[in-house]
Amino acid sequence: MLCHTPVLDYRLSFQERRCRAGSRPSPPEFIRVYLMAKKKNRSSFVCSECHAEHAHWGGKCDSCGAWNTLKEMEAAPVAAGSVKKSSGGLRGRLEPLEALSAIGSEEEARFPSGIPDLDLVLGGGLVPGSFILVGGEPGVGKSTLLLEIARHFPKPMYYFTGEESVQQVALRARRMGIDQKDENGRKNNSGDRLFISRETDLESICTRISRERPALAAIDSIQTVYGATRDSLPGSVAQLKEAAMMLLETAKSSRVPLIVTGHITKDGAIAGPRLLEHMVDTVLYFESDRLNHYRMLRAIKNRFGPVGEAAFFEMGRGGLAPLDGLRPTVIHESAPGRVYSVILEGSRPIGVEVQSLVSRSAYGQCRRMAEGLDTRRLVLLAAVLEKYLKARLAECDIFANLAGGLTADEPALDLALCAAILSSYQEADLQGLGCVGEVGLSGEVRPVARLSERVAELTRLGCRRILVPAQPQKGSEATEIRKQAQAGGVELLEIADVASLARHLGQAGGEAAQARPK
């Protein structure tokens, strides 16, 4: 009997020939170590925007389409017997269900924070068990805001700081005048109600809050706390998820309001997974103007009140001072190209000063530049004025500015910007003119929302002549606007289009020229 031996192709490599011959070689040592480590370290990649999990890393998330958002995190080990069957294998204690009529209202349980503007943003005050997230740029004043709350809060408050030492927090508090005597020699006892801790262990923080039940707790910041069950660093996706879950459960079970601060990315969004913003009850953004004079606290998400409310503060050596609004310069200091208008931030009307400079262009192509205003809107309004008023603005450079370092893009500023451009172009001094209205592409002036509040704010600023849209207002709003004008001694002029605006500006400029001393 012939013995058939396998025919080997000597063109193959040595390893392949040995495999075909039946003696499979063992892999090198470093490959076996790598494969064993790869089996032990089970990890997945989670998108920080939509929280979708992926088995492998990729530049783009397949669920939401965001780029460079996949972060690696270790998968939680699955305990033996943890997978239960869909039928007959359910375990656990069922919580009793409550009827809607037997559940109390949270509105009755609200209590003030001590800062009326902050209560306005929160929707009326702090709600027991609420989870509040405050985000903002580095150095905008998030830690100062927490100490400002501690100054006015009348009950005990816990402050967990992971970014600073206890001595640094105490130094800032004394610089702000907390726990010191005032001018009358009376001591502010807010320092006796504020308790500071350097604890960053998540379990210890939650245990202390649940057992001691303070009236308010603050954590600065959520990126510095960590859970012992995770091997990743503080601030990672896994740590933020666990911190959000445990802090949320602690706030709801103990009914202690919890305020945490969070870092933001270079794009202005809160750092970490989007799940963090979805889980909290309220998201507040702490913003600053370009000149770093004022601070604005805006509600982006609020389960217990309206969204869009804003509170204004002025940063000083003594901390954050609340402001009723941002006031423009003195109204009687008038000049060509200066017009006043009103923007809305939540329920607050804010008087602003719109400035414009029109000059003959020294180059071949004219320029359109705006600071604090939308440059595209400036180009559009300049084209409307040039077409319907036959103004030769194509030969001029136009510069527009919103005084005070503010930024706004409301359509209600259109009429004021057109008036400022015409005033500078005609060299007409308007003597503190106020304008409110939107300008369309056909040159018509359209009404804007909450006109009565805007007129009241311009009257309070000192405007004696206010231009408003000519389209009739409905119901009681028109009557209220006329009463405000009569009570304040304001001349209310209705403008239908930009041609009417030019006629009124010409009359105002002629009167101002006659009144000007020679």
Index terms:
14 helices, four-stranded mixed β-sheet, disordered C terminus, alpha/beta, 30% helix, 518 residues, nine-stranded mixed β-sheet
Radius of gyration: 32 Å
Give the biggest beta sheet. Answer: 9 strands, mixed
* Beta strands, count: 21
Q: Within the largest sheet, what's the order of strands?
A: 6-5-7-8-4-9-10-11-12
- The low-confidence runs, each spanning 5 or more residues with pLDDT under 50, are 4-8, 30-35, 78-89, 509-518
The coarse overall form would be: elongated
Q: What is the typical, i.e. mean, pLDDT?
A: 80
Helix content: 25-40%
Strand content: 15-25%
Head-to-tail CA distance between termini: 133 Å
Classify the secondary structure makeup into a structural class: alpha/beta
- Count, helices: 14
